[in-house]
Amino acid sequence: IPDKFAAVGLTYDDVLLAPGFSEIAPADIDTTTRLTREISLRVPLVSAAMDTVTESRMAIAMAREGGIGVLHRNLSTADQAYQVDLVKRTQTGIISNPVTIGPDATLEELDRICGEYRVSGLPVVDADDRLLGIITNRDLRFTPVAEWATTKVDEMMTPMPLITGRVGISREDATALLRKHKRERLPLVDDSGHLRGLITVKDFVKGEQFPHASYDGDGRLMVGAAIGYFGDAWERATTLVEAGVDVLVADTAHGHVSLLLDMVRRLKADPATRHVQVIGGNVGTRAGAQAFVDAGADAVKVGVGPGSICTTRVVTGVGVPQVTAVHEASLACGPAGVPVIADGGMKYSGEIAKALVAGADTVMLGSLLAGCEESPGELVFVNGKQFKSYRGMGSLGAMSSRNKKSYSKDRYFQAEVVSDDKIVPEGIEGQVAYRGPLSAVAHQLIGGLTQSMFYVGARSVPELKEKGRFLRITSASLQESHPHDVQMTVEAPNYAGR
Ligand code: RVP
């Protein structure tokens, strides 16, 4: 009997980090960390695979800040792969596979393609990919809209010869060419005039604007995408890999199940997918983490029930307080060199450092990012304040037939439930305060983490993990931690009260 009650689970509010001697300046602190066995990130932030948090806009913004976004899977396979494509084509410095248009296309098609890919101009190529010219939004402006459907691209484009670069040109040479000729775009061609890439001034400027961005080996932004184990999950996975996804996240609310572990094993064995990093989850125990390590996962995601919108612990009575869960998982993952992701339950920036000290390498955020401009969904006004909707992927709204895109019911093992009144939700639907652009939110989160590291006396994430020591605290201490005995009159950008 004592065994049955042996363990005490702790979460973020149960602990504080002890301050330590610091010989460093906050400016020397490096937050670089490992997302998976093979991917490093400059900041330990991952945006949650939820339909109110991560689509391509959020994923692009996250990668620019040095983290990564995981595209949710309440989307058809084609839509999710399309979102991967949107991220991979964004801000790349050198675009190796630019969107193009043919000479016989109409201006109407040009307008549609520019809108779809959010670009302002396209190289014009023949059927053989030979560069014929370039056409931009500006060329549209001088043709009345009524004539767009009948005007062809080759009537309006700037034809060859253009200022071009040789494929393989250095960043410096490309910049010099663009400057010298005051051009915004530099198509890259090979000896026989085939288009092999494109460089745009805008992308170069952005490259300078986002020095910590998460790039793949080809200089494209990195992106993750969620998959499951049920139905056409394998087809979804291979389609995402073809679209260029960097990380597949194979997860369910309870990941320690044989079907999902089989999926991870297959992904890491199959020649079509094994070059892509695979994250498995979610687990809350050492044994669960060990099972994913044994299945070959490149990282393990931890969190059973801590999410702000999650009711799993109340509906099922099952879960592990998050600091304990992360620590337990790290006991299995650490020796195997497999990074841990602490998923869910974060309310303040201070909890990022707590998660890292407990054994995580990165954190996955839902509610803290759902209020960003880049999250899907409209702004709503309530009593003059701005909000954005935020809901659990296990909520009725996300899983019921009211949502035509309820593709991820298997995350809650309800894939085969057909009638809405038979769904047993494990999440709720709500809203969070609008927080503005991700860059401002991420600045506060990373700023908070950098201060944590300074207070602990750690220059790097590995040092933080090694030096960090927890104090267990009481509810009186927690009360002391928050502002108290004062009526807050102004909301801080990183603290909105409890
Ligand atoms: P939070 O950051 O506390 O808002 O939690 C986000 C996490 O909650 C997600 O990354 C996911 O693991 C979990 N989640 C998402 N939907 C639900 C649910 O409906 N129960 N839970």
- CATH superfamily annotation of the largest domain: Aldolase class I
CATH architecture of the largest domain: Alpha-Beta Barrel
Strand content: 15-25%
Q: Find the structural class using helix and strand composition.
A: alpha/beta
What does the main sheet amount to?
A: 8 strands, parallel, barrel
- Average pLDDT over all residues: 93
Query: Can you tell me the residue ranges where pLDDT is under 50 for at least 5 consecutive residues?
Result: none
What small molecules does the structure contain? ribavirin monophosphate
Shape: globular
- If helices are DSSP runs of H or I spanning 4 or more residues, what is the number of helices? 18
Q: CATH top level of the largest domain?
A: Alpha Beta
In terms of quaternary structure, what is this? Answer: single chain
Enumerate the strands of the largest sheet in spatial order, edge to edge or round the barrel.
4-5-13-14-15-16-17-18
Helicity, as a percent range: 25-40%
For the CA atoms, what is the radius of gyration?
24 Å
N→C terminal distance:
38 Å
Stated plainly, the CATH topology of the largest domain is called TIM Barrel
Total DSSP E strands: 22
Tally of domains: 2
Active site: 310 (thioimidate intermediate), 411 (proton acceptor)
InterPro entries: Aldolase_TIM, CBS_dom, CBS_dom_sf, IMP_DH, IMP_DH/GMP_Rdtase_CS, IMP_DH_GMPRt
Catalytic activity: IMP + NAD(+) + H2O = XMP + NADH + H(+)
Keywords: CBS domain, GMP biosynthesis, Metal-binding, NAD, Oxidoreductase, Potassium, Purine biosynthesis
